[in-house]
Amino acid sequence: MRTLTRGMKLVVASHNKGKVWEIDQLIAPYGLAAVSAGQLGLREPEETEPTFEGNARLKALAAATGSGLPALADDSGLEVDCLGGAPGIFSARWAGPQKDFGVAMEKVAHEITARHGWTSPGPRANFISVLCLAWPGGQTQTFEGKVYGRLVWPPRGGNGFGYDPMFVPDGYDQTFGEMEPAGKYAISHRTRAFDAFRKAVLGDLSAQPVMPNADRDAAGLHAAAANISTRDELKTFVRHLSADLERRGQPRVDLGTLMVALEDSVAEESTEPRWRTLAKALLAATEAKRS
Ligand code: IMP
Q1: Mean pLDDT score of the chain, rounded to an integer?
Q2: Residue whose C-alpha is closest to residue 185's, from 11, 12, 21, 3
Q3: Which residue from 25, 96, 272, 288 puts its CA 20 to 30 A from 111's CA?
């Protein structure tokens, strides 16, 4: 089995800023530099396989052969027992073209209601993540992680993304949306898949602390804004943005700058969730101030 070494470049086979950010957080302590398939201008293959493993492999292989570099892909989703494992590999697609997870969570809740599945303490579900590492020569390795729990309705909390606000992991009372990120990452499906990846592929590498810097902070804020679906997620985002400005000793953004940013954001023909548009406008206003 081939291993990765410190300083190597690894393509993260995704165009989703949130996913690229999360994977970068996981690999950066091992001295690996993440570059996204989007940054390299690689096309995003259609997820045509019937399994998480098949789709992870398909995405990783496309990025590895397209870039000539090792590539890491994640395919993940939510599986609800009383829905026969749905939404499963269709988890992202239930959110529609605008990736509105407010809509996707409503759909899950509705399907459970239709099957009289709202038992107490809540229907069983799990998140699953399959990571695939592909090499330019076509060799692949896959790693799986799961976290089990129950669903709640209505959704709770503004942290995380996707279906986080309706998932309570076993042994906890808070949803993933209510937990601090460190709490979620300690037990998440992606962390568990990454642990298996780390043991097999990062063999001798040891984790070293990654120093925060302005570029990493800005990338994190962009990733968060791009994944906002709900009002609570916007509220949490605003708190993080304020803290970031505070840390930088930035002056308050003036109303004129904010109005220009808002006007630019809403001028675009878009049906994305309005909370996300607002978050992007706020972020753009603070960046206009920076430059
Ligand atoms: P894909 O792997 O890009 O096809 O999409 C995975 C989808 O599963 C995401 O868009 C989310 O809807 C959902 N998902 C995966 N991991 C998580 C998680 O950690 N929290 C919440 N939702 C998740």
Answers
A1: 91
A2: 21
A3: 272
Mean pLDDT throughout 211-240?
Answer: 85
Question: Is the beta carbon of 22 within 6 A of some atom in ligand 1?
Answer: no
One-character DSSP codes across 59-111: HHHHHHHHHSS-EEEEEEEEEEGGGTT-BGGGTTGGGTTTT-HHHHHHHHHHH
CA of 91 to the centre of ligand 1 (A): 6
**Helical (H) or strand (E) element with 114:** helix 101-114
> Taking the model in full, what pTM does it have?
0.88
Which atom of ligand 1 lies nearest, measured to the CA of 92? 10
Cα 41 to ligand 1 centroid, rounded to whole Å:
23
pLDDT tens digits for 100-112?
999 999 999 999 9
Residue 233: CB within 6 Å of ligand 1? no
The pLDDT assigned to 1 comes to 65
Ligand 1 probe mutation, 58, 163, 174, 229, most atoms within 8 A of CB? 163
